[in-house]
Write a structure and sequence with these properties.
Elements lengths: L8 H12 L30 H6 L2 H12 L11 E4 L2 E4 L12 E4 L5 E4 L12 H7 L11 H12 L9 H11 L6 H14 L1 H4 L1
Helix pairs in contact: 6-7
Bound molecules: zinc ion.
The site of zinc ion has 6 residues, from loops.
């Protein structure tokens, strides 16, 4: 992207067509069921399919189910993405996003280079289809539009202070207190396992 001449509209158009092949925020699900979150049992969760089930399923249906299971930014909470802009709590990712029929590659009024893919779903994360169907969990994807953006990203994550991890006992206790009293204990254990996998301590 460093060699792209942003003043040349046909070069920008070609770069945009290139990115269109790799990232999208287009939901193939029917408009009427796009925002319906279906409660799923353990046997019917696209994230939990085994290799045999994945390869015997229809690839398009598999992608559609997976996408609507893990790539929807449906709820903004203080714990995840809400932050204060002045006195108003706003989503850090600016969700929900505006719909658009045509992708855009442009420099905004603050001089930032931006790419926006076509979008028919205001709560769908920008993603790469192949990466999602292989990774089978939430994974956002954004084209790198400048060397500065890449350096800023690396600097942010390498300098981020590690938080002190709570003990497993405290973690399970906190999760148990957060779920409804009528919920099954299995629900608490699933959340507990999910958190231990996400934690960077385990990842490291
Ligand atoms: Zn949000």
């Amino acid at each position: 992207m460093e060699i792209l001449d942003w003043s040349n509209s046909s070069d920008v158009q070609l770069a945009k067509i290139f990115f269109n092949k790799y990232v999208t925020s287009w939901n193939p699900r029917d408009l009427n069921c796009r925002n319906i979150m279906v409660p799923r049992s353990l046997n019917d969760d696209p994230c939990l399919l085994n290799v045999g089930q994945i390869f015997s399923s229809n690839p398009h249906n598999d992608y559609k189910e997976l996408l609507n299971r893990v790539q929807k930014h449906t709820k903004c909470t203080v714990d995840s993405c809400l932050c204060k802009k002045g006195t108003i709590l706003t989503c850090w990712y600016n969700a929900p996003w505006d719909l658009c029929d045509e992708s855009r590659l442009f420099i905004d009024d603050q001089g930032r280079k931006k790419y926006e893919p076509t979008r028919n779903d205001d709560k769908l994360n920008v993603h790469n289809i192949d990466l999602l169907t292989m990774w089978r969990a939430n994974v956002d994807c954004q084209p790198v539009l400048s060397r500065y953006a890449m350096l800023k990203y690396i600097a942010k994550y390498t300098s981020k202070a590690e938080k002190r991890f709570e003990s497993y006992r405290h973690m399970l206790k906190r999760i148990s207190n957060s779920i409804g009293s009528e919920d099954h204990a299995l629900c608490a254990y699933r959340k507990f396992l999910a958190e231990t996998i996400v934690d960077r301590e385990i990842g490291a």
